[in-house]
Amino acid sequence: MKSGLNKVTAALLAAGLAFSVQAADITIAYDADPVSMDPHEQLSGATMEMSHLLFDPLVRWTKDFQFEARLAEKWERIDENTLRFHLRQGVKFHSGNELTADDVVWTFQRLKESPDFKAIFEPFSAASKVDDHTVDLVTKGPFPLVLNTATYLFPMDSKFYSGTTDDGKNKGEVVKHGSSFASTHPSGTGPFKLKFRQQGVKVEYERNADYWDQNSPGNVDKMTLVPIKEDATRVAALLAGDVDFIKPVSPNDHARVEAANDVKLVTEAGTRIITFQLNQERFEPFQDVRVRQAVNYAINQDGIVKRIMRGFGTTAGQQAPAGYVGHNPELTPRYDLDKAKQLMEEAGYKDGFKISMIAPNNRYVNDYRIAEAVKAMLARINIEVDLKTLPVAQYWPEFDKCAADMLMIGWHSDTEDTANFSEFLTMTRNEETGRGQYNCGHYSNPELDALIESANLETDGGKRELMLQRAEKILYDDAAFVPLHWQNLAWGARNNVAAEPVVNAMDFPYLGDLVIE
């Protein structure tokens, strides 16, 4: 063990991991572990990665954003509102129960009730069983993103999750930030089974010996995830040989990993937008568009990317990254400190005001450093920021309560489509439909809402792109939120870890296919 690694040693000893790596076993250090083993409790990258370990979707994205058959081995269009999926036969859940169409229907109904996922499935009217291994997904009207959405349908073991616990609670209940049967008792069809979990310490997975995908190249028998929040400590663990794979690697540490022996840096261009929301319900001055515009003009996105991200990101003036249908090339970052001061004076706030701000400190690359930089930038227009940063396990409950005047959130489109950003981040909050579930800015614009809903029914690609571009322009003019940058992705791995084939721009590597050479 190298000297000066007391934090690494403490973290690994607490997890029972130090000096325990064996052939075909792997230890991964992440910035944070998943908040739950329930695939429908929290819509986040950590949840998606866990879902691909313990469960399987009907279809999944490839690295080049094509659709790959998974639990659905094929599909066919029945009519303009119906897509029929044919399930693989002989697939078993970890409990031993066999996957059938009943599980898909049960899971679909649960997704329609999940606070975080129901907005994604709002365009669908039903999942209908045709026979034991055939299911129809039926939309309310023509919908261009059925397969995109099917990547979020991870069939759950309906028999396993049916009934009640010993204390009378529904085993299938979705509980946000609470203890439930589903949050601690997974039964999926995935390449790994849950062996042990102590939140904040470690999660242990073991290979599913009965996994249906015999063509998977994955040869990892045991996978242990240990959270190490500090960027430098995580890298030190990799360089010392105490862990095999880390995520993420901060831009500040790229050169350190690239220069080291026996390890490598693996990168991908990313499409996750990092933003700040301006809570109009909690802080009245943010209801004034001039104040929201002033905040946008005061923040130097280019400076953040150059200095804090070390160039490892792309400055943003909108939600949609280049390449997405709906990206509007006219919308660029608008840093202008004099303009920001002018707008504050016009709005009657020349002397500024004080606001609260929250941000995670182990969720996005350099998240707390970015928050500190934004705090300093806002001070130049006399906005005093009371900043609080939190580990992600404590951050999400606070965010879900919209418990600050400015709040950081990053978002990768769940459907690899521009409309999804607005569906969750900027459409009017609606508990019934799930629209605006993560809109803690409480921004509300009926014109935007109507545009997104119409775009989701438009099958003409050209018309749909113009509608989504118009939506981005509305958000830009309204300064509905503060776009910062699209975050690129970096992992560190030992040279014998074949990370390149399994990492992807979605930021949830398919670790079931991971090969240790």
UniProtKB/TrEMBL annotation:
InterPro entries: Peptide/Ni-bd, SBP_5, SBP_5_dom. Gene3D superfamilies: Dipeptide-binding Protein, Domain 1, Dipeptide-binding Protein, Domain 3, Periplasmic binding protein-like II. Residues 1-23 form the signal peptide. CDD domains: PBP2_NikA_DppA_OppA_like_2. Residues 67-426 form the Solute-binding protein family domain. Belongs to the bacterial solute-binding protein 5 family. This is ABC transporter substrate-binding protein. It comes from Oceanisphaera sediminis.
